[in-house]
């Protein structure tokens, strides 16, 4: 239980929050107001009245900028502490005009005294999963509410399990464009979107909330130089009223993943998610996607055949995709129109066997052309694979090290040539599935399976003694590591170790005799993943365009891989590891509806963030996509096996939310065909002043979304049959 005591010192009253097991936080100045053109002011309450047991009404009044401000805070304490705040500003006089509108921003800071060496980990959903190694940092990190899949900030004391979380419980509901005539980073904006964050300085931790938002010490909202941004509510009306509410929880948890998951699930229970109501069924969505995927198929005179599914859905099939920023190359770029991509952001082989299975007839032969072309032109005797093919130059090319290569968003241009582990695993797995599906039709494609086995053997041969794999390899099997794109150090260079596990288990099942070496490799890799990534609650390097950071795909792959191995070995430690990964994976997905900017594509389509997933820890939930669809079958299965209904519920929210803005017969949404969908959605701005992503934008499309919406969603639907 929590209790609140109001201390009185010079200037008035301030609250002290205690938890029965010893946690204590103070709010030295419960009313802090910063003014865009003026100064920052701090106040204590002038009066506090206990309305009933555990419920207080605290008042503060002050005058500034020609307004009389009244702050009414309603505090309650039981299992948590909550404050419902109403800010009312009434104009009393017209102050001299400076040419700019004055604005106000309120801040609330909860101060916790700690030992300087206390090993804290901090967390903000989909944007910050700090490690224990960072516990001594003297930093301030603040994040906009709509950059988080739920607006909360959490601090976990790894030595005691004490967990403090500050969250918003009266959620933002409106936003209008900021007023930035000179591209200022401090500006007025009419919005109730705030921000939450923390600062750690020596023996003090401060949990902070701002309204409207302040995002610093760094922000990606405006530019790559990460200037902090600060919004102030404009003081240009006779009467202004703002409402918000926060909850402070103090608890004790066994581990970081448990602490994060408990708080996230608690918030979903407190503010029930309200998912978008789709105008079609999930099965219908797959049929619509199949239409545009089918229409992207082309056969070329050179013998190349494939799906040219990288395009802007607003412009049509042969256009360049609209883009975003990445570590190596920003898109759009014309290269995408002449490249066949077999892994990561384009899954040609999956598209081929998916169309064959769905359409039958001539599509079995068309699929064979696509797959034969890959096997003939991209695989090698050693098992190593090319996974990119330039059709105009009629050649495969490396994913790095080739200065003449097309400029895809993850293709780096060093001087050592090779390919990424993930880019080879995905087409190899798709090739194995294609072989099995064609065999079911009585069509035995031996050379396909031979290529699959060669790659399986390649994986076994290049696996490290500790069970790991490096992130990238030269054609002769020499690993690439400890360099940009390949990992900052030995630990991050092995961050892709979970990715081959599901493929190797599937290959073992195809050959349970000789295939035992594949199962052993999968088990060894899983042990490495458990002891290095799961034990540390640290997942990075899943994506290849921003490869050395924490991201959603790394934890997804880990969760799915461990669950797959549990299904085939019944070893409880793999299920426990899958659960721990799933606890963090779900936090990458929205459980609240972030407000959209009027006049934008997202606003016009009533876009709802519930079920959509953030991408990486640069953008957080400020940019979402549908990649979470790939492994919701595993998430649902983990929920059933572990008795955790929230995992199953999250899988359902993801399945539903990720079908938004999919064009269908009743509404093509301005796209060239039905079954088209943007690749990404801008929930808050990223690189706005550099022409990247504005709040409300859509962009894309790269071809991976077809595999997410057909393979990922299809596997989930099949699990109910």
Per-chain topology:
Layout lengths: L1 E8 L2 E8 L4 E3 L4 E5 L4 E4 L3 E6 L2 E10 L2 E11 L3 E11 L11 E11 L6 E5 L3 E2 L9 E6 L7 E6 L4 E9 L15 E3 L6 E7 L2 E8 L2 E2 L13 E6 L4 E14 L3 H15 L11 H14 L1 E3 L5 E3 L31 E3 L6 H12 L2 H17 L9 E3 L4 E2 L22 E2 H20 L5 H17 L9 E2 L5 E2 L9 H4 L7 H10 L5 H19 L17 H18 L2 H14 L15 H4 L8 E2 L8 E3 L6 H11 L2 H13 L22 E3 L15 E2 L4 H15 L3
Parallel strand pairs: 16-20
Antiparallel strand pairs: 1-2, 2-3, 4-5, 4-10, 6-7, 7-8, 8-9, 9-21, 10-18, 10-20, 11-12, 11-14, 13-17, 14-15, 15-21, 17-18, 19-20, 22-23, 24-25, 25-26, 27-28, 28-29, 30-31, 31-32, 32-33
What does this structure look like?
With 721 residues, the chain is an alpha+beta fold. Helix content is 28%, strand content 24%. It has 15 helices and 33 strands. The strands form 7 sheets. Strands 4, 5, 10, 13, 16, 17, 18, 19 and 20 form a 9-stranded mixed β-sheet that branches. The chain has a 9-stranded antiparallel β-sheet with strand order 6-7-8-9-21-15-14-11-12, covered by helices on one side. A 4-stranded antiparallel β-sheet has the order 30-31-32-33, with no helix packed on it. A hairpin with a 4-residue loop joins strand 4 (31-35) and strand 5. Helix 3 packs parallel to helix 5 and helix 10 (552-569) packs antiparallel against helix 11. The longest helix is centred in the middle third of the chain and has 20 residues, at 421-440. The mean pLDDT is 94. One of its GO terms (biological process) is carbohydrate metabolic process. InterPro entries: 6-hairpin_glycosidase_sf.
């Amino acid at each position: 239980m929590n209790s609140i005591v109001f201390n009185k010192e010079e200037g008035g009253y301030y609250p002290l929050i205690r938890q029965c097991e010893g946690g204590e936080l103070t709010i030295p100045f419960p009313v802090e107001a910063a003014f865009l053109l003026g100064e920052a002011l701090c106040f204590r309450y002038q009066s506090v009245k206990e309305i009933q047991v555990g419920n207080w009404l605290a008042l503060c009044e002050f005058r500034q900028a020609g307004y009389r401000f009244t702050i009414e805070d309603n505090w309650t304490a039981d299992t948590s502490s909550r404050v419902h705040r109403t800010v009312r500003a009434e104009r009393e006089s017209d102050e001299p005009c400076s040419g700019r509108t004055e604005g106000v921003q309120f801040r609330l800071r909860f101060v916790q005294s700690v030992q300087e060496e206390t090993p804290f980990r901090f967390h903000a959903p989909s944007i910050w999963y700090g490690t224990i190694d960072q516990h001594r940092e003297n930093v301030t990190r603040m994040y906009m509410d709509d950059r988080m899949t739920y607006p909360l900030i959490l601090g976990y004391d790894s030595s005691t399990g004490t967990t403090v979380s500050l969250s918003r419980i009266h959620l933002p509901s409106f936003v209008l464009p900021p007023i930035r005539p000179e591209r200022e980073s401090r500006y007025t904006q009419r919005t109730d979107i705030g921000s939450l964050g923390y600062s750690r300085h020596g023996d003090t931790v401060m949990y902070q909330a701002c309204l409207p938002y302040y995002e610093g010490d760094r922000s990606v909202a405006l530019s790559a130089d990460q200037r902090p941004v600060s919004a102030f509510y404009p003081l240009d009306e006779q009467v202004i009223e703002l409402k918000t509410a926060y909850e402070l929880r103090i608890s004790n948890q066994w581990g970081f993943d448990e602490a994060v998951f408990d708080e996230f699930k608690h918030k979903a229970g407190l503010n029930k998610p309200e998912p978008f109501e789709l105008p079609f069924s999930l099965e219908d969505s797959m049929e619509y996607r199949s239409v545009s995927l089918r229409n992207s198929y082309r056969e070329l005179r050179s013998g190349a055949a494939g799906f040219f599914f990288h395009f802007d859905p607003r412009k049509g099939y042969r256009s360049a995709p609209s883009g975003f920023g990445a570590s190596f190359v920003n898109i759009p770029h014309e290269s995408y129109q002449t490249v066949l991509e077999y892994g990561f952001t384009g899954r040609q082989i999956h598209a081929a066997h998916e169309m064959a299975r769905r359409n039958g007839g001539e599509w079995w032969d068309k699929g064979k052309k696509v797959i034969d072309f890959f096997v003939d032109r991209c695989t090698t005797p050693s098992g190593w694979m090319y996974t990119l093919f330039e059709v105009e130059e009629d050649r495969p090319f490396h994913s790095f090290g080739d200065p003449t290569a097309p400029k895809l968003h993850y293709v780096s241009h060093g001087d050592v040539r090779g390919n990424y582990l993930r880019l080879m695993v995905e087409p190899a797995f798709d090739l194995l599935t294609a072989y099995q599906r064609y065999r079911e039709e009585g069509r035995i494609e031996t050379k396909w399976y031979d290529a699959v086995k060669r790659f399986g053997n390649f994986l076994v041969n290049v696996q490290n003694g500790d069970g790991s794999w490096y992130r990238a390899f030269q054609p002769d099997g020499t690993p690439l590591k400890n360099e940009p794109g390949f990992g900052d150090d030995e630990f991050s260079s092995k961050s892709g170790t979970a990715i081959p596990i599901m493929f190797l288990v599937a290959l073992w099942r195809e050959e349970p005799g000789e295939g035992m070496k594949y199962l052993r490799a999968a088990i060894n890799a899983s042990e490495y993943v458990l002891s290095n990534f799961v034990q540390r609650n640290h997942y990075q390097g899943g994506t290849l365009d921003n490869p050395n950071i924490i991201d959603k795909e790394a934890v997804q792959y880990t969760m799915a891989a461990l669950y797959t191995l549990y299904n085939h070995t019944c070893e409880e430690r793999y299920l426990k590891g899958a659960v721990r990964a799933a606890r963090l994976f779900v936090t990458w997905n929205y459980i609240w509806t972030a407000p959209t900017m009027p006049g934008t594509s997202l606003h016009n389509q009533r876009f709802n963030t519930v079920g959509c997933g953030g991408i990486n820890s640069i953008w957080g939930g400020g940019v979402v996509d549908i990649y979470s669809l790939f492994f919701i079958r595993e998430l649902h299965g983990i929920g059933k096996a572990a008795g955790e209904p929230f995992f199953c519920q999250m899988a359902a929210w993801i399945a539903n939310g990720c079908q938004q803005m999919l064009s269908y017969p009743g509404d093509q949404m301005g796209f060239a065909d039905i079954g088209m969908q943007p690749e990404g959605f801008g929930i808050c701005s990223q690189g706005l002043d550099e022409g990247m992503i504005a709040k409300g934008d859509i962009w894309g499309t790269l071809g991976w979304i077809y595999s997410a919406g057909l393979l990922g969603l299809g596997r989930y639907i099949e699990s109910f049959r």
